[in-house]
Amino acid sequence: MAVCVAVIGKDNSPLYIGGIGTDSSTDNELSRQWLVHTALDALEERLVSSNTNAGNAPANAARTDLRDLYLGLLYSTDTHKIYGYVTNTRIKLVLVTSSTSPSGSNIRDAEVRTALRRLHALYADAICNPFHLPGDQITSSKFDKQVKNLMLNNV
Amino acid sequence: MATQPSDSTEFPSEIIQKSLALIGLSGLDTVNNAIHKAIWDAFSNNRRPDRASVKFKLLNNTFEYPVVKPKRNSYEWYIPKGILKKNWIHKRISLIPAVIVIFYDMEWNDPQCNEKIIECASRVQSIRAAVEGHATRVAVVIVQSGLSPPPSEYMLGAERAQTLCSACDIQSKSLFVLPHSDHLMGYIIRLENDFYHIAQNYYHHETKNIKQHRDHLNKTTHQYLFVRHQFKLGFLNEMKQDFSTAHKHYMHAYNNLLETRQVDTNIHEIRTVAGYVNYKLCKLLFALNLPRDAIAQLKNHIERYKNRIGPTELLFEHYAWIARQYSAFGELFDEAIRAGLPAIQSQHPGFYYQYAAQFTVKRRQAMRSVCCEALQYPPPPDPMEGIVEYYGQRPWRPGRLSADPHDPQKEHAAVLALQYNERTFNHSSIIISFLGCAISQFKTFHSPRMRKQLVVEMANEYYYCADYGKALTLLTHMLWDYRREKWWFLASHVLNRALQCAYLSAKIQDYIQLSVEALSKDIQVPNNDKSRIFHNIMAVLSCAIPAQEPDIPATSLGKALELWQNVIEKDPFLISIDMVNISSFLEIKAKFQQSKYRIDEAIQVEVYVRLTYKVFLQIKEAILTISSNTETIEIPITKDGSSKFSLEDGTVYKFLCQFKSIPKDSGSELHIKNVSFILDADKKRKIVMNYKIEENKLANSFIHPELLHFINSPKTDYEFDCILPLTSTVIVSRECRLSMTIVNNVPALQGEWFPTTFTITNDEDCPVSRVIITLTLISSPDNPSPESVTELSLKEGEPQTQPLKIQVAQVDKLCSYSDTFYLKTNKTASTTVQIKVSYLIQLNETQTLECIKDFTTKVTIIKPFEVTANFLDLNFKQITKCFVEDPFIVIPQIKILSQWPLQVYDTNLEVVDCFQTFDSETESCIKKLDVSERDVASDAICVQAKYKPKEALPRIGLYNIKWKRKDSVEALCVMSSTPIPALTIDDCPISVEVSYPEVVELQTSVPFTCILRGKTNIPIRLGLTVEGTDSYMFSGYKKFSITIPPNESIELSYNIHPLVAGNTRPPRLKATILGDSFRQEVVTEIFEKNFPQYIFVMPKYNK
């Protein structure tokens, strides 16, 4: 399903970018990074708009906490669809599907939501590692394996 | 409108232009006739959007209208040669007017009116003849001065107008009168709208004509005509400004075109026409405010034609065409936004410009793959020469419909020509301009990162077209943002490209800066070849040309080497790099060892250096820059006393810098401003790596070092990471070594001048000079503003302005200085006095230092005594009120609270106006009385009220006590005043004076008189009774009434005879006022008061 999954820190620095590509040449990695990086524009726009809505009425503060972490489809290009998810600590999760492959183009929103929730859980597990420095890139091979699995399993 | 780059796919202007109804104006001589000029200007100038959608064309007499083609009765044998004729639109929008308006000057009352009518009719006739065959409408405008009334109210005018209409053979509603004298613009706008209606009528008629053709057509041979006719209908409706009908017809045209059989020979034509129709469709959809439909239309359009690529050797044409579709749509979208259409981040024109750029890139790729052989333009005859009658047809085979090329050789030459043209085409410039449009759109719609990506793409494009300087500028700006967000992979990509650009354009400053950053551990370089980069830095440092970057275009290499040759031994010799803003291979942390230094201490700064790139780095010089309020100093960083040292990776180096602060900096802050490392290869060139330290930046990048314990990293890294930079320190003044002792007798008493003696002893190792002692009162919570209630002085009894300053010239070593100050306060609270001592000292160093020390002393103030007062009448009975002229005694009682024995020097009572002292000569009874704690001294003063005041008095008067401490003989007396509370004063119409003996003997008659005195101006009548008792017999009137005359007295005499011994109650007089009863109470009271309660009766002893 997914061709690329990214975890982005609260300061918008990449913590993890994993992709399943047929080739791992620099060009592919580069286009993947561009894709995820530009998705931040849409993500930030969503966050700003949801914040201003809540900011108008402080009484709704509780509602913002209960805000759905899944932001849905951020934008789509000719070749890819990009979905976003933001945790309460402003860690941003991005999932990219290919709209050219049949499995990617027909994906349902609920599936993406589930996948991103699972990714959130995996991320939480990964940073529970006391040897992980918060804010650093996630280098855990176990996390990498699990994420790759997640991307493939959901096909 | 954004200027779009041009190429062969550009839309012709007649497609892009807004289609407006064409109206011809004839008979206006704008050159010679000012009125005509004004009319023409009013029609043609200042066409705002709210005016009718018409276009005016000035027709002169020689204007030639297109010849009408002979009407075809049957299409049976007609085979169309193409889809859309190129000249048709042009004819419609600028040659065939819908209406021709003939302007003619004539007044209704003109004497030669009939001749004029005939002339006008002949003009109309000639125009009619010129447009023979066209259905063009004719209208006549009579230009008048406006002086004569309108024809409807003017018989002659109406008549003549009628004549004119019939002469010209026009309907009366096609005749207009234009008065030009005033309100010209208003008339013009009304005329314009009328013309517009006539024009709409005309176009409607024209569409009917075209619709009639349809019945004659058949699908097999006339497919092109289906498209053409629908397009014409659409266009005419557009001119009529009926957009929805126009859209309907264009849509038919579009769909008919899709059904057309497509072969390699007509693909270009179909594509071109489809593009135009699609453009028209989208434009109308935006005009109808259906932007979603417009977007959907474009998507479907691209989807349908995406795979109709045509002949592969002309693949680039296909991509060029797609790119043009996108960019044209982007322009339409942009225009619609400017006209008020809202757009959002995920749907705005930028995307379409981006697609246009992307497809242009594809076009270039296609060109590279198919145009390799087109090395030169084919020999003449030029296949590109030739006139094409239809849109999208090829000049070398105009109007040919057959699918197979009739002349393979010519076809080949033509393809070669197209390929050659494509080869020489500058794709980069068109891509750059598309990207430029896209970038500005993405910036508008809050997509900074998308914009950045496009800027990088643009820079790449500049790189491909060898404009390295521009590429470098763009890339270095973008690098900043990727670095800030720590997208190192992208940053590396940008940096490597920038490094290539810097090399190719031989910009030394950028080249070095980028190379230094490339050595950072965050940056990946191609082939992981960082040592090459390091050697290049060293090469530039020693004024040698660096080795070339990998993967650079060979064509630019020679130029680059030439550039390097020119600049390598020239400026800039000093390359300074701002290291804080880039990621680098040399990291610096600097900290003050303490956050506070005394001015006489040496300040120490630790500088930690870590090299993350595996190299042996020679540092020529390193400098630490420190700034204070007054100056900035540079301190060399040295290793083992040498300013030249080398660094190796794997160790954290620590350098210690020491310096002394100057006296001026006392109390201010010092900041580490900069650390510079200088590389120098003993040639002219230097590289200065500056680490500017800004405090606000440090806080951001702070990681808790505690967390680093867990990280599996080299130990040296841990050491370095744990260091918390401390970039500012405070300079405090030198510690003062003076001591102070204070002698005083606390607590102080309220109101006294309380002496305090302080002694300053110099404990320094040398004499101190210019000692200044400043005494100030300090506020405290229980005494917030002490200066208002407390006085300070150096002389007893003379208040001085605070703060007090004492200047002492010099105090020698181990000597002391002492002085006394006096303090007087009226508030019973503690008072704090600050004694600030400042002095100059000259220690071993040459500099003179100023030292300051604050001492404080706290003085508690208590009340010396408390005064209470009692009131007694002359019988020594407690009273609560007194009567006018009735004397009583005030007994002030002084309760001593002071723990120090006091001497009461004198006392007196200062009474208020309505009282007076009863005794003529008053001397205090407690004069010169020594008292000590808990003693109570009582005084007594006899006082009499003079009159009854109008208002109740707050007090009788002030009781003044002059006192001092008993043991301080010389001290001044203190005068303390205490208010004595008031006593109610009442007045009585009479006064009573009773004389009776204090003591009587049993069985002995004694006289007893009572004098009643009138106090008012009127006589008072009293009823008197004697209230007898068992203890006495008495003689005199028992019950009677008397009149007391004003201000005179009456004496009543009785004899009383005591019957029993002991304390007895004598007979008493009681009075009632006769008449005026409200004074009764006072009278009763005064009688009560003056008659004795008891008389002591002595028993009689028989001797």
Helices and strands in order, then pairings?
The complex is a heterodimer of chains A (155) and B (1103).
Chain A: E1 2-8, E2 14-19, H1 26-56, H2 61-65, E3 70-76, E4 80-86, E5 92-98, H3 102-105, H4 109-128, H5 141-153
Antiparallel strand pairs in A: 1-2, 1-5, 3-4, 4-5
Helix pairs in contact in A: 4-5
Chain B: H1 13-16, E1 21-26, H2 34-44, E2 54-59, H3 86-95, E3 99-105, H4 113-130, E4 137-144, H5 155-168, E5 175-179, H6 184-213, H7 223-239, H8 243-259, H9 267-287, H10 291-305, H11 315-338, H12 349-370, H13 408-424, H14 427-444, H15 448-464, H16 468-484, H17 488-504, H18 508-518, H19 530-541, H20 554-567, E6 574-578, E7 586-592, E8 596-598, E9 602-611, E10 616-619, E11 621-627, E12 632-636, E13 645-648, E14 652-660, E15 669-680, E16 686-692, H21 695-700, H22 705-708, H23 715-722, E17 728-732, E18 738-744, E19 748-749, E20 754-762, E21 768-778, H24 786-789, E22 790-795, E23 798-800, E24 804-811, E25 816-825, E26 831-842, E27 848-859, E28 861-862, E29 865-873, E30 881-883, E31 888-896, E32 902-911, E33 915-917, E34 929-931, E35 936-938, E36 941-945, E37 955-965, E38 974-981, E39 984-986, E40 990-995, E41 999-1001, E42 1006-1014, E43 1020-1027, E44 1032-1035, E45 1039-1044, E46 1049-1058, E47 1062-1064, E48 1068-1073, H25 1080-1090, E49 1095-1098
Question: Could you explain the architecture of this structure?
Answer:
The complex is a heterodimer of chains A (155) and B (1103). With 155 residues, chain A is an alpha+beta fold. Chain A has a single domain, classed as Beta-Lactamase. Chain A is globular and about 40 Å long. In chain A, 36% of the residues are buried. Chain B folds into 7 domains: 190 residues, Rossmann fold, CATH 3.40.50; 72 residues; 107 residues, no CATH class; 147 residues, Immunoglobulins (Immunoglobulin-like), CATH 2.60.40.10; 100 residues, Immunoglobulins (Immunoglobulin-like); 122 residues, Sandwich (Immunoglobulin-like), CATH 2.60.40.10; 109 residues, Immunoglobulin-like. In chain B, strands 6, 8, 11, 12, 15, 16 and 17 form a 7-stranded mixed β-sheet that branches. A 5-stranded parallel β-sheet of chain B has the order 2-1-3-4-5, with helices on both faces. In chain B, strands 18-20-25-22-23 form a 5-stranded antiparallel β-sheet. The model of chain B has no long low-confidence stretch (mean pLDDT 84). The chains are: A alpha+beta (155), B alpha+beta (1103).
